Amino acid sequence: MTLSADRSRLKYVRTRRWGSWIAAAVVILIGACLLWAVATNPNIKWSQMDGYIFDSAILRGLVVTLELTVLSMAIGMALGIVLALMKLSPNNVLKTTSGIYIWVFRGTPVLVQLIFWYNIALIFPRIGIGAFSADTNTIITTFAAAILALGLNEGAYMAEIVRAGILSVSRGQMDAALATGLTRRQAMRYIIIPQSLRVIVPPTGNQAIGMLKTTSLASVIAAQDLLTVTENIYAKTFFVVELLVVASLWYLVGTSIASIGQYFIEKKFGAGSSSSDVKLADFVREHVFSSSRAQSALEHLKRESEIRG
Amino acid sequence: MGDKPLLEARDVSKSFGHLKVLRGLNLTVREGETVCIIGPSGGGKSTFLRCVNFLEKIDSGALLFRDQLVGYSERGNKLREWNEQEAAAYRVKVGMVFQHFNLYPHMTARENVAIGPRVVKGEPQNKALDRAHALLEKVGLADKADSYPIQLSGGQQQRVAIARALAMEPEIMLFDEATSALDPELVGEVLQVMQDLATEGMTMLVVTHEIGFAREVGDTLIFMDEGVVAEKGEPREMIACPQFDRTKAFLSSVL
What we know:
The structure holds two protein chains of two kinds. Chain A is mostly helical. Chain A has helices at about 20-40, 45-55, 55-90, 90-105, 110-120, 135-140, 140-165, 170-180, 185-215, 225-235, 240-270, 280-290, 295-309; strands at about 125-130, 130-135.
């Protein structure tokens, strides 16, 4: 073999990734077939969806879902902070109590907890203190049962997130704060908590987005959330798939908007760290399309430790 | 330099579990004096500094600051341990600089310096920030006032940490191996700031491995080993001709 005399005329040719091209072609083909099968399916009445997407019952259900999400998360966060501080306390009674709570509420399915709170009247027919008591079923409505179940369950998860956040702040920060004459309480407020938020906020956002979807479990006790009303409608009209698509679209809108909100909140708490440079598009892609909540929380912690290390 | 002792340690002992870190330590720091402590690691130098500003509690003996017992106050005929507020009020008078700077990463350099006066002394935000700026100027970092710690070099971070301690207008400054975590070329700028402070008459207790600094700036040199003051003297004399074998061995290993 001889080399060409004038090699400057030769072009570099990159190795072609035939394997991934073929794979991509197969994926496109399968995707197109699926789309075709769904779009042209005579059993799906696409025209019916228009009428239901802004249906007043659906919108009321959406509002209930949002209320459930916000209130459950609020209870979860408040409870999580208390449980985390208890678990970090030097007092063994507080520490153990918190540990048992977390063990029980994380160790049993949230669906079981939901049905339990719904049926709480079976063991406590009346609740109250002394003369002030009331029929349990009038206080613990399906909505209240859903909030209790979701909020108390969330508290256990938030406790671990808050605890990890506080532990992520190095011991030297407390030393430095105390050495300048701050009391322990002041040091927590001005130095430790603001720094731990950087670790606490991202997984909390993931929890909130997860909660938006988890509220659909409340449909088993007919809490009048988005999925409950969806089921009620298709029980009468039999447009099952069409209505599930309508509900799914609203869930998608909710989780996508929440992701964008999460991006701006994280940016606000990221002052002084390099993680505040992530682009919105990358952030949303990662959060909307990434699978599990725990997974992304882990990823975040890993990133955080890389920044620190 | 005055003759009045500002800080006095009498027979101070401290253990962590079974490990005896301080075993009857005695030393005095006079007003305006710069006392340097050298010695092998594990000798209790850092622990002693932490005891001085009550981040650690001593097991026996006594620490006196201006003739007042550190950590306890006499009530009736008992010595009661300080509460949070009493400890915090004492620590205002004792500035401390750490080996790893421990700057607050979520605040700019200026906010790092201003947070103490603002929270502890209730200084108005504007005044605290102005004063912080003046202190940063003093340590040569006026142009870095709005930088976050992550954007500063180690030497710059340590100078911010010194400014942060000075903001509380302490009566004594404790330096816990302030230059040990720095790249060699950054050590000088921090030592310069410390030397300026000593020249201004600040009382300083300096744990260090910089023998040169101890010789040039220190008024008294202490060799600490196995939890006691093994040798004490005028820095130049002691470095030139140490009396004890342990001191000799240590000095020859670091010089």
